[in-house]
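Researcher: Structure prediction, please.
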Amino acid sequence: ESDAVGDVGKSNETTTPTTTSAQTPQNYIEGLSEAKRKAQMASLAQSRDQALSNLQAEKSGIAPKYYDARNQAAAGAQQSARNFAEFMAARGGTSSGANAQATLMNNMSLQGNLGALGRQEAEAFQDIARRETDARNAYSNNLAQAEAGILGERMNLLLNDYYRAQERGDRLTQQAIQNE
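Model: Predicted structure follows.
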């Protein structure tokens, strides 16, 4: 019977520390810190992904916008050339130097407009790229700040737990001395 009692005591001793160690304040603090870290990471990632998604949507509208603007500029130049050709035909001078000069000026104006649209399009793409970089950098900075804050809070909680354990130990020591 003493063996059976010893076996029961031994089995309780092996299960009790496992249960107790899983529920220590340190384990609780570590679990809480990890849960906060994961929640903050998910929140920050969601914000970053939303910002990048919005920028991608904005970026996808740039090329069609400037394609249409270039087509409008070209159509406007063609309309101006047609109007001038009709004006010159009405005056009877279709091959004069004035006609050639007007065609040259019309083409230069078109090229200037197309060049300006090209620069504006490039600037729009550069702006999107800069804002994407800003969103990624903000994510990295916010993530580092969040992790530092969680680490600081975790260290504070562990330190406070240590102090409480020291106080409990001191009280138990004092009680043991008083009981002697």
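Model: The chain has a mean pLDDT of 84.
Researcher: Thanks, that helps.
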